[in-house]
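Ticket #4471: structure export looks truncated?
Reporter: QA, pipeline team
Priority: medium

Steps to reproduce: submit the single chain below to the structure queue and open the exported record.
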Amino acid sequence: MASAAKFGKMSTPAYLQQLEACSDLEDVTEVCARIALESGFERALYTVRLPFSFVRTSTLVIGNFPHAWLTRYEAHSYFKVDPAVAHCSASLQPYPWRRFREHLGDPAVRRFVTDARSYGLRSGISLGLCGPNGESGFLSFASGLEEEVKRADIDAAIPLMHLILPYLHDTVRRIGWPLLLTGTDVHLTAREQECLLWTAEGKTSHEVASILHISESTVAFHLRNVMQKLNVYNRSHAVAKAILLRLLSPQDTSVLLTVPSSEQTTAARGAPEIAIPLDTPLRSSVVRR
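Actual output as written to the record:
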């Protein structure tokens, strides 16, 4: 990819085209750095954490934050105290770094902020995203100038960050995922998903067989295949790993909750109530399309 210095300032559609044209992570880094620079920031960073188990994650870091800072950040486990990480892991709202001030009563956070400033990261903004495979990522733009100077740039960057973040994440998934997902490309058949789904609901093999109208031995057969594919040794572990890999998720049902209008509420007064037991078993909640 040609150097950003050879181009004039790009429009937002051009940013997205540049992301789609990236062929490696160096290209992604270059585009991110350029978007940040043209938004008034010297630094950009995109970090993705992908859980492979409940105790182990893999992290991909892309951007032009100082390498010495990233090394120090990891060595001191600053991700455990970084308020931006905590916020972006739980919210899709942007997090301006001026909010670090809310946490300076915590000595660990105060050390983190002081350390970051010493590496030229004095102001900025972060925005998080939750991906379809359970990954959590966040994009940060940072500057060596103080918050009072950069406030207008920070506020102006928010709409652009919201727009480009999904495209950036999809680009990273396309290019970077093979680096992270080695050995996790698992496919479950529809019947294996059904058996595992009802197992996750606490059903025994006998109950699953009754719900799906198959034999108990067939249920056991499918669950053995699931455990082999997931490289686990019991059903509980299979359910947990399938959830982490997004192979198992809450299924769509025919229950629709609506907020009635005032007219509907008035008309419904005096009508007999219809009780539907919530534990009524479904024949199958895996929808085949």
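Status: closed, not a bug. The export was complete when the record was re-opened. Leaving a note from the reviewer for reference: Residues 1-7, 274-289 have pLDDT under 50 and may be disordered.
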